[in-house]
Amino acid sequence: MGATVLLTGGAGYIGSHTLVALRAAGHDAVLLDDFSNARGDVPDRLARITGAPVTVWRGDVRDRALLARLFAAHRFDAVIHFAALKAVGESVERPLDYIDVNVTGLVALAQAMRAAGVFRLVFSSTATVYGTPEAWPIPEDAALRHESPYAFTKLTCEEALRQAAAADPRWQVGILRYFNPVGAHESALIGEDPQQPPNNLVPYIGEVALGRRPALRVFGNDWPTPDGTGLRDYIHVEDLAEGHLRSLEHLLAGRGGHVVNLGTGQGTSVLEMLAAYERAVGRALPHEIAPRRPGDVAVLVADPSRAAALLGFRARRTIDAMCASAWAFVSRRATGG
Ligand code: UD1
């Protein structure tokens, strides 16, 4: 029989794709979301994709009274905790808000879980916890450092969970360090749909392709990389969702907590990503070379071997599939579809 899983932030970009992956594998999920960075129609779209209605609790993960009601109303086998703030630049301006939502949110959730006797947790972390890496590909035992308040909150959450698990062996925690998730579900009904102007590369290229921005600014072509532009490990969000499924099933099988990178192990440059998006759109897109963006690093590429060995997880989808699905989603959204 399938598990029942609480997805905090379940209407968001990665949470929504994970719900689809869970249902395809015979599990079910309840969403908790405050819809601060998700559209209100995502639950209906998830129902269309999966063929069954979705139970949604609307609210803030820091709301302890709400959490108590939620855990009293459902018997959860596990929780996947996506709900968080995630913009690095904004975190520099609003560190206390980031600490409140991300760290206080996790603590409130974990205490509500403990009170309800639920101890399996999959936690969304980030490759940003590696800071400026010394070498790549990056294994999970590389040095960790926070170079922004956002990274600080994710490292603090990881450490809080390590300490909780050390103190109480009932905790089974999967920590997933995402590299750069991009792309959209093959239905083009859900995808990355930021409520604010995008800072990330692929959503920004989408805006250029829609004619809403004049040109992509390539942040530096003098990095120590083959074409001088930044190299990242882009992972299709549907692969990333499957990584969550593998982590969850590892915990459900009692095989223990883990910390794993979710990436492909392949580096793709900004110009290579632009070229792939141009293939998806079928025409050239304007770009210009701009100065380096403060805080950027030259290369961020995962060593994905632990996820393969431990969880049997390998990302399969190509850069072209990522860009084609991202474009299918944003172009459909732009025409009201
Ligand atoms: C950022 C966040 C990271 C987060 C990830 C996914 C930082 C330092 N890191 O990673 O925590 O997990 O997004 O949401 O913010 N680029 C351009 N022009 C643009 C936008 C980006 O050239 O308009 C380049 C960047 O310089 C970089 C690459 O594209 O080389 C990827 O950038 P981006 O998509 O913002 O992701 P990261 O910075 O890697």
Please supply descriptive tags for the structure shown above:
17% strand, Rossmann fold, 7-stranded parallel β-sheet, alpha/beta, 3-stranded mixed β-sheet, 337 residues
Describe the structure.
The chain is an alpha/beta fold and 337 residues long. The chain has a domain at 4-182 and 233-264 and 301-315: Rossmann fold (3-Layer(aba) Sandwich). The protein has helices spanning 13-24, 42-50, 64-73, 88-93, 95-116, 149-167, 201-209, 237-252, 270-281, 305-311, 319-334; strands at 4-8, 28-33, 55-58, 78-81, 120-126, 172-178, 180-182, 216-219, 231-232, 234-236, 258-262, 268-269, 287-290, 299-300. A seven-stranded parallel sheet has the order 3-2-1-4-5-6-11, with helices on both faces. Strands 12-9-14 form a three-stranded mixed sheet. Strands 7-10 form a two-stranded parallel ribbon. Strand 2 (28-33), helix 2 (42-50) and strand 3 (55-58) form a beta-alpha-beta unit. Helix 7 (201-209) packs parallel to helix 9. The longest helix is centred in the N-terminal third of the chain and has 22 residues, at 95-116. The protein is globular and about 55 Å long. Bound molecules: uridine-diphosphate-N-acetylglucosamine.
